[in-house]
Structures are given as C-alpha cells and as structure tokens.
Amino acid sequence: xxxxxxxxxxxxxxxxxxxxxxxxxxxxxxxxxxxxxxxxxxxxxxxxxxxxxxxxxxxxxxxxxxxxxxxxxxxxxxxxxxxxxxxxxxxxxxxxxxxxxxxxxxxxxxxxxxxxxxxxxxxxxxxxxxxxxxxxxxxxxxxxxxxxxxxxxxxxxxxxxxxxxxxxxxxxxxxxxxxxxxxxxxxxxxxxxxxxxxxxxxxxxxxxxxxxxxxxxxxxxxxxxxxxxxxxxxxxxxxxxxxxxxxxxxxxxxxxxxxxxxx
Length: 263
What we know:
By secondary structure, this protein is an alpha/beta fold. Helix content is 30%, strand content 25%.
C-alpha cells in the first residue's frame, strides 16, 4: 500500500501541467513617447536561442485583452510572447475621430510610430535575451492583423511566418514577398468583408506559388503546400468578426512548424 501511495504521488507530480508565468509590463521610449507592452519570457531565454511571437490587438483593444485572448505564453511557454499596446488612432472602418487605440494602417501613417515601436522592442529583446532569428513571428486580429500584414510588407526579412486574423492588406499587398502565412477569417464578417479576405487569401496562394488544391486538416483548416516552402493555411469559421477561442492553438501549431531558412 505504501508503494502504491508513492506511485500515485509520483504520477500526480509528473501529471501537473507546466503553467507559464504571467507577462510583465515593460516600457520603451519611441520618439519621446512612452510605449508599453506585456512581455513573457521563459527563464531559458537568456541562455538558449528562443522564438518570439509578437501579438497585436484590434482597434479599441488592449495589450491585456490580447494576452488573455491569444495566451501564446500558455500555449507555447518556450517562446517569448510580446503583447504590445497601441495608441489612439483613427480607424479605417470605425472610430474616424481616433478616440480608441490601434495601429498605423500603412507605410508612413502616424509618422511610422508603430513600425518604430516594433524596431525598438525587437532591438531591446535581442539585447536582453538570446533570440532565435530564424523563428520570429507576428499575429494579430482585425487592425492588429492589418498591422501584421504591414510588418510583412515593411519588415518582412525579419519574420519566419505571419498569422493575421480578420484583416486584409489592400495598401501593401504589392510589397509582400513569399512567406509562410496562416490567415483566419469569419464567413459572415460584417466589418472586414469576407469577400475582401477571400481575395487576399487567393492573392497569397498565387504569391507563394501554392498548389491549387489544399489539404483539409479538420473542419476549418486548409493548408496549401508550396514548392518554395512558403505554405498558405486558411482557417475559416462560420462566425463574424470575432476572434474564436480555438484560434490561438491553430496559430501556435502553424507558427511552430515554420522556420526561416538561414542564409
């Protein structure tokens, strides 16, 4: 009985899931403006090459909501997760007066303040941690997904893969170069119309030289392979503009599979 009790205790110890620590607030000065974000980094990040996932909230959202909704630090605790906070900015589809936080929508907008923020944050992370430069990623929802597309256009050489949600890249699609991408969309999205997003996904498959037929992985995910190693994955749900609860796990799985070739 004593041996059985020890075995039970040992089983319970090894069965307890590893829970990541909470992201901590950090600040950076960008053109004299204090910017902030929530950053999670595993203890190993100062010793071993570590992936980074940048996460961008939607217009009117916050870094706290992004950390809660995406919770990359829980799903991929071996990676650095960065949830940045936008500043008040006019929205292209809502909030024309700019009373809510968001991200610049195109190159040169808002003095490129958010591209400068990204540059500043990445530089500081590289100074603090051992960053695996072959595994840097970006994801975001709505306006945050649009900013992910802008980062692809303006800083594409930095990233291994992107995962925008409920977004399109009308201003910058001509600047994109082939790169692995997962695009998430709702079929009844009333804000970023599904037909706009479908046109974007069609463009991405052409850009990346993908096969005409994709492989279904479950009910919502389709992966279109590419001979150049730049697959396009689409995750289509029947809902509207919301970020679905199952999206983070799909994003993490896809990003984990993408590594930028070393030149």
